[in-house]
Predict the 3D structure of the following.
Amino acid sequence: MTPALNLRIAMSSLAAHKWRAILAMLGVFLGALAFTGVQHVSKIMVRQAEMETEKLGPNLYAVMAGSVRFRRSGSVSLKGNSRNFTVSDAQALLHGVPSVMEGAPFVSVTMQVRGEGKALTAKLLATLPNYQDIRSFYPEQGRFFNDAEVEARAKVCVLGQSVAKRLFGTPDKAVGKLVYLYRASFRVVGVMEAKGRDLSGEDQDEYLLMPLTTYLRRVSNQTWVSGVYLRLSSDAGLDMVKRSATAIMRERHSLTDGEDDDFSTMSPKDTIKLQRQALDLMTTLGAITSSISFAVGGLGILSIMILVVRSRRVEIGIRRAVGGRRRDIVRQFLFESGLMAGVGGAFGVGLTVVLVVAASSFAGLPLVIEPASLVLTLVGSCLLGVLAGAYPAWQAANIQILDVLKS
């Protein structure tokens, strides 16, 4: 029998039991959709995290005061003493940790900002001019403050996109204007490019940046900082960097062996690692769900093929009587069960591709298509159908011609 003839017979058989066939294919469809969908969601989220890491700056590493706690979502929270991290600690890390190219101490606090009769709460970040190079974060309007302004403790600042829009309407109108922290006025010299949220969940467009010395002396009159951003060389080993930074900070803070660290070290890769763990759990649950759906689909195909064999006993007997071979009967029924599962798997794979493209187009997520996963799912669906149809095909091939004629 030719493949075309097998296909015609299979299509007529499925059309005769179309609702049963649809229900049987539904399980395979859901299994294929769940498996490929979860796989692609995981890949998309990992790629999204990698893109966010690139936005944070090349080879960024941070040492922060207090104890940073990572959440499963990737956000962070700060606990413990955050007032014992000094600029001298930052300098010691800059000169003592291997593979460090440059560093920028920073203070991060939340303050109310006023401008042109409007007030809002923003994240204030006091740092040094090289912060923009370490974080790969540059002004879109105007400029960043410079070393001379740091030395002079100048009352200047740079606004994030959202802060500039909320206070002045558009970013280009903000440059040259005054904003107020408490009663002190600061001249806006630039507006940063749009950056969005980073891996920790902080909206970088809601920042106001100013010289570190200005904040320490003119705004808060304090001696401590929140931490230091470090830019590492491309070949830096994070484990070695962490050991060195930890040893330096514990020695400077006179911590004994039994005491916990009063600081935290972190890199974007730490956050990605936690996100991967959450995604791995989701992938495992998705694999379990898809396996159950595939099993239900396989049982559905098995049951419908048994019914098909019983309803086509006369056809099978006649084909055997006119010279049909057992292997032709087996091939026919295996082809039908494989076709049924393959169609269900194809619809599941196709819907996954549609959803991925739609998410990329309308939700701004990266477009990630895994051809190997799609092909593997499609082939696996067909093999499931063949496996489910093996017993009914064996039954059909062993139908006796005399029994059919007698009935």
Summary: The two ends are 27 Å apart (CA to CA). The chain has two domains: 3-51+273-406, 100-232. Confidence is low (pLDDT under 50) at residues 72-76. Residues 100-232 form one domain.
